Amino acid sequence: MAGSANLHPAPSVKGMTTTAPPLAVSLLGRLGRDTQYVLLGFPLGLITLVLGLPAFFLGVGTTIVWIGLPILLGTLMLARGFATIERSRIKPVLDRRLPHPHYKRAAVPSFWRRVLTPMTDGQSWLDLVHSVFRWIPSTVAFVFVVTWWAGTLGGLTFPLWDWSIPRGPDDTDLPQLLGLGDAYSTRILFHMAVGVFFALTLYPVVRSAALLEAQFARVLLSGINELREQVAEAQAQTAAAVSAEATALRRLERDIHDGPQQRLVRLAMDLGRAEQQFNSDPDAARATVAEALAQTRETLDELRALSRGIAPPILVDRGLQAALTALAGRCPIPVDLDVPPSPRLTPAVESTAYFVVAEALTNIAKHSHANECRIHLHRHEGSLFITVVDDGVGGASLAKGHGLAGLDDRVRAAGGLLTVESPDGAGTKLTAALPV
User: Are residues 297 and 388 both part of a single domain?
Assistant: First the structure.
């Protein structure tokens, strides 16, 4: 069955309408959340300082008589509790939840093990550092937020309460000191202008103050956890890259062994037989040479096919859209291809995307018994999404030993994610997300 590739605009998604809030409402909501975070953080900073610092020094000072160890343990547990509160408060400011760290636990349920184990946990000491020193960014943020809110509200509402300020005949206010005159209207305009200045700069000042306090907490309360996750992710990507490379090499070796290598062996045998036939039977020798030429052409075709699977020239020269169009045209199953025009991606991303589609079409042609398949590519929020859907028998899996395991390794090696939905008898939907 001849393959068909149709390029058309990306289909619109129905039934998923979202209404974005007006910008003013969004900014006011952000301003309120940041203000609440800073105003509540200041008393929390004072409480943690008053409770944490004396307890820490008391525990250190009495460690020599062993009483200090339980006191230090209690101080670390107190700091851990305040750190948990801070992690729950920080999400509206950073728009993401801080992951709860994995604290060390005593392997043996004994009293001294339970006392000493938290003292060997780096994150517990970072929680204590945050409890003791958080008052510094909290105080700085609190001063700026209160000052700017007071300047905004006081300046804009100055005409409403100016009359309540008692003034004597010798009193001098700020406009007079600046040489702006002493008229009532001048005083009103001056203070309202000050209020307008504070109002216009209120959002960036409050936002910066909240981020100062929140980032200080993020670094201390999730630093080790984030570092562990980054190391684990890097190790997983490295392992996936090694596995994908090994799988690709084994597959290439198998394809060469089963295809071109066998043909080359037969070609050598045919040429040797033709050499022996030239003197005794020239016609048979010419027939053998003609057959050897046919074998040579077939071998070249197989080698070209293998090279296209490794690094297709059309992908390098003309980009992903042209390469996928050619790939869909060679598929024995009709392909509905939707690849909107877009700027060129990095070679690594384009190569991985091409490999995903090529491997998916190969599996569909070999195993799915599908009548057609659809391929859709689109970019969203810094990622390239590749969706391949067929109407075959389903049953595909990413588990080791299945054909898609190597594809999953290839995608994870590029920092992406591969998911497969393939219920029995209901087709297969393969989705790959690659960071761009």
Answer: no
